[in-house]
Amino acid sequence: MWQDVPGLASLRAVHVERDRTAGVFTIESASFPLVAMAQNWLVGRGAAPDRFTSRTPIGPADRETRRVETLLRETGPERFTVHDDYTYTTEPYDIWVIATDTRTDDPQLPVRVFHERRQVDDDTYTLREGHFPTVDAARAWTQDPDAPLPQPRTSPSARAAAASRGNSRSAAGPVVSTAPTPGPAAPPAPGRTRTR
What residue spans of 15-155 are helical by DSSP H? Predict the structure, then answer.
């Protein structure tokens, strides 16, 4: 679904509850920039996280994309406070979301950017996360979404735990999402045209 204002979230989650006795339906809906965030909202209203199916040929490109999506879909709604999001409707079809982690493992990097990009030729997309000290620093990154996303620093104990699991990269902890609150769109990145 498309909104009339460039950059607004283009997905709509709809929760329908049927009252057979009264013969009525109760309908609730909300907009989201990422599919996994919409699914998280539906899970909070009783949907089973393992029952979602996709009717699109476009799929996740790799394991990291699936990991971030699973965390966004299946962890409760209290952890993240969403500040901004933007959806581009022209190539490369970027979507980014800026959120503060209320239970961050690193209080010096409490802000996350979730960045989705579609690979048109392969009918796939990637979803990545970056860690920032402030919302302003995260907004600055959105002006150049081709730049690398900063990764979390790991403590010696976290690195040792990751090594004992045979994994050189420590997990940053679970990621969840709440419904984004509407806010002003960020200024466009240089050289990018945002259109609907």
Answer: 35-43, 63-74, 135-141
